[in-house]
Amino acid sequence: MTFDYSRKVIHLEPNSFFNEAFVYDASGLRLRAASPSFSPPTVAGVREASPAQAAGIVRGDVILKLNGRDTAYLSLETIREMVGAPAQSHQLTLLRDGKVIEVVLKTREMLP
After folding, report:
1. How far apart are CA 16 and CA 12, in angstroms?
2. How far is the C-alpha of 102 from the C-alpha of 112, rounded, in Å?
3. Would the pTM of this model clear 0.85, i.e. be above it?
4. What is the mean pLDDT of each run of 10 residues along the chain (112 residues)?
């Protein structure tokens, strides 16, 4: 990327990684965390035909544990990174309607 400020032009050229896939999310989860503690994270949305939907995760679920680790001690970004990698299996402990449930989330690459 080259900025030509005098002509107000940006030049873009592909680099050696241009044809490689960029995996942004492999779970299908959209998470949010409310202040003031920002913990535990809540599922704000589930993408259709995603691993999260296949695992039975629904909007409003609260993630209490991820792979046995209490999410109160994990940042939202750390959780997103953990479940965002493809070809992984994660054990989630969720709180739904006052009941604690366990699900297995098997991540995979998804097309946009």
Report:
1. 13
2. 28
3. no
4. 92 85 84 79 95 97 96 89 93 97 95 66
